[in-house]
Write a structure and sequence with these properties.
Rossmann fold, globular
């Protein structure tokens, strides 16, 4: 029998590499008593003296947690943390932070990293809508989006929308990389339109990652891109669903506009993804 949710949350409250600060903890009126609490390094105690919207690791991740000057890479919507942990194994000279609000799922990767003694990976349990509150300008070098919900009904909820790109700009270094790996043709096509209309530099674009001829990946030291496969990715591949990948840079300056295009909706349901509209296309 798998470990229950309460037991998993109890475990993570003692993990030195897990920080828990969901939206409800960051959106209270400012006071010493309502400051956000952290598990792990803060021992789950209240951050006395900090305002409710401040996060003590902001701008200090390298100095206070990783203890090095290596690049910081975020995985947003990390789920079980398989990708963040896999990248941490393959790239010891980079720091990785998996971000998700689903703590019970995150426990798997967090526990695996702890048992292996990986020092270059951390986890942050919070809402991605407020991700810009946790990192200082220029603190993050790259962002990974792995199998994000395509949010076919509402553009502002898509993690590659201009709504989120504006937030990423607040902490991503100028020209920092954004990686999208997805089973969703809808999200892949939408993201391509976003990069085109906003003239964002695209480095790699593949609509069938595992059958594409991409020297920049196979010969460019990005072996982790092809070798790390999550549980759900393997499931989709077994169903004959192709995996798409796009990597682009996000300049710090310039207006961002949403593409005005209709995109065919995905015609299947993923493990926890439902088509929420009777429409055949979405924006």
């Amino acid at each position: 029998m798998s470990k229950g949710k309460l037991a998993k949350f109890a475990d993570m409250a003692s993990y030195p590499h897990v920080f828990e600060c969901p939206f409800r903890a960051m959106d209270k009126p400012e006071s010493m008593d309502s400051a956000p609490s952290l598990s792990g390094r803060a021992g789950g105690e209240s951050l006395g003296g900090e305002s409710a919207t401040s996060f003590p690791m902001r701008g200090r991740w390298r100095q206070d947690f990783f203890k090095n000057d290596n690049p910081i890479v975020l995985e947003l919507g990390c789920g079980r943390g398989e990708y963040a942990v896999g990248l941490a194994r393959r790239y010891p000279d980079c720091n990785f932070i998996g971000v998700d609000i689903k703590g019970a799922r995150m426990w798997s990767g967090a526990t695996e990293a702890l048992n292996e003694g990986l020092k270059n990976v951390a986890f942050l349990r919070t809402n991605i809508e407020i991700i810009d509150r946790f990192f200082a300008p220029g603190e993050v070098d790259e962002i990974w989006l792995t199998f994000s919900d395509p949010q076919m009904k509402k553009a502002t909820k898509r993690l590659t929308s201009t709504y989120f790109l504006q937030r990423y700009r607040r902490f991503l270094k100028d020209g920092g990389l954004i990686h999208l790996k997805t089973d969703s043709n809808f999200l892949f096509t939408y993201t391509k339109y976003v990069t085109e209309v906003n003239h964002l530099p695209v480095e790699v674009c593949a609509d069938d990652l595992y059958h594409a001829s991409l020297p920049s990946i196979t010969e460019g030291g990005d072996g982790g891109l092809l070798s790390i496969r999550t549980y759900y990715e393997q499931m989709w591949l077994s169903r004959g669903i192709t995996i798409k990948y796009i990597r682009f840079r996000l300049p710090a300056e310039g207006n961002l506009v949403e593409p005005e295009v209709d995109i065919p909706l995905d015609d299947y349901r993923s493990y926890s993804r439902e088509k929420r509209s009777s429409l055949t296309t979405g924006r």
